[in-house]
Amino acid sequence: MPKIHPETKVLIIKRLKTRSTADVADTFNVSQRQVQRIKKTFEDTGDVFDKPRSGRPRKTTAREDRLLARKSKASPFSTAAELHETWSPEVPVSTRTVCRILSRNGLRGRISAQKPALNKRQLKNRVAFAKAHSLLKGWMLEKWKKVNFSDESSVELHHSCRKYCRRPTGARMDPRFTQKTVKFGGGKIMVWGYIQYGGVREICRMEGNINSLKYQEILATSYIPNHKRGQILQQDGAPSHTSISTSKFLKAKKIKMLQDWPAQSPDMNIIEHMWGRMKEEAWKTKPKNIDELWEACKTAFFAIPDDFINKLYESLPNRMDAVLQAHGSHTRY
């Protein structure tokens, strides 16, 4: 509830002599409850000013707080301790106070999102692709339904990510509160897959380094048998995907491609969400080796509901619009 200026309170008291509480509240754009409190305070004390409140007074001034907020905005990756060292208020304060001041200014500490680095050429290509596949160019859901999205992904046996826990003071190294890690992730597998609107999907395990011939074998066994006339295959610009050999193979098989796919664009490839969900479910089974990991991934991939895939397709027009709104930069997807 916003604080009312003392001069406004005086005007409210004057208006109450001739008008109702509801009329005064509407006139000054405040609630009736606030008007009633001001009236009662005036009747009890003969004044409209707030009484001095108990509690420790603030150590920093509003000007010092603004300076700290500007320093944080200029260097968003600086910690509270680092900002504390470069900020010099008249009264010494703790790092915790620095955190509270930043929070009051809407600058709360968060884990930064990890996104691919984009150069000017890539930004330009992302905008060009989004424009060419926007609603204005006729790319509605019905047209996106014809596109089959594909990609590769690596899955570690033991994944590592930041996990929060609640523990007593001094128990940081207690085994109950530590996250166990394995060097190099304990091994990993590479998978390739694709999805269609309606829930049709396929996944296969990839062995060793993938060259053009291996990629063509994957397409021949895992994609082409399910390919229908009029469908379009989306793939990224990996060398094995865009080589002369693969291009001739796709042309011979009469596979139509989604042209000019921009590099560094996982937010535009909806199969990335499939990989994320598949990995989460696979890791929950706690596989002991990479063969068990592959079985868990395969089970999790085919267990994802068809409706989940359909909703990803439905988000594509909004994804193109988001890329345009961001001028080719990262989007929330």
UniProtKB/TrEMBL annotation:
Residues 65-133 form the Transposase Tc1-like domain. One of its GO terms (biological process) is DNA transposition. Gene3D superfamilies: Ribonuclease H-like superfamily/Ribonuclease H. Residues 147-293 form the Tc1-like transposase DDE domain. GO terms for molecular function: DNA binding. PANTHER family: SI:DKEY-77F5.3, TRANSPOSABLE ELEMENT-RELATED. This is Tc1-like transposase DDE domain-containing protein.
